[in-house]
Design brief:
Length: about 200
């Protein structure tokens, strides 16, 4: 099996943080909420032809990266495939808030958020609206996976706010869903240490 760590570092990072793999993203529509520069969508399209949709408030960085590639001449067939993967990622991009997703109900078999939600939803109303929107667009049998739930440098007030918001979100959902909190070991880039981080996985029945 191909080692993805050096060719596709963001894809590798997502797989580790979210506890997923290639089989989890192939053959289904995936939504990345808080997608940053769209590297997950681009690398997944390049490596597997995966269909990753992205929601991000500001996609200027992704556009700038593609524009740089668009002006580079082909070298050994590599750059055309790279450009195609960026075009695929950009074509499935929604530049806006997770609170107002433009997608139809039950469209995605997997919804992910890596180092974005729920920490970036700054107040209770935004959290409940954003999480409800993710639930709405998740297909029956699909999953929402978010990690980390609590950022390592978040204040105690912020941690309590997020946990309270997640409890309210859970209480708004059907009782028979699969709601799973788990832990994984991650590296802290600022301190060079390893930390235990929480991951949330919700399966829609």
């Amino acid at each position: 099996m191909e080692d993805l760590r050096y060719k596709h570092p963001t894809l590798t990072r997502y797989f580790h943080v979210l506890g997923i793999g290639q089989k989890d993203i192939e053959g289904i529509r995936v939504l990345d909420a808080g997608a940053g520069a769209l590297y997950f969508a681009q690398e997944a399209a390049y490596a597997f032809g995966a269909e990753i949709y992205s929601c991000e408030p500001d996609c200027a960085a992704a556009r700038a990266q593609y524009e740089r590639l668009a002006n580079v001449q082909s070298m050994g067939g590599l750059l055309p495939k790279l450009k195609q993967s960026w075009e695929a990622a950009l074509s499935r991009m929604y530049e806006g808030s997770v609170e107002t997703l433009p997608y139809e109900d039950a469209l995605f078999g997997l919804v992910v958020s890596c180092y974005a939600l729920p920490g970036l939803l700054q107040n209770e109303a935004a959290m409940q609206k954003g999480l409800s929107e993710l639930w709405r667009v998740t297909a029956p049998g699909g999953r929402i996976i978010m990690a980390p739930i609590l950022f390592s440098r978040a204040s105690m007030d912020e941690r309590i706010r997020i946990l309270e918001g997640l409890v309210r979100f859970r209480n708004s959902l059907p009782k028979d869903i699969e709601w799973r909190m788990s832990e994984y070991i991650d590296g802290d880039a600022l301190t060079g240490t390893h930390i235990t981080v929480m991951r949330l996985s919700v399966k829609k029945s």
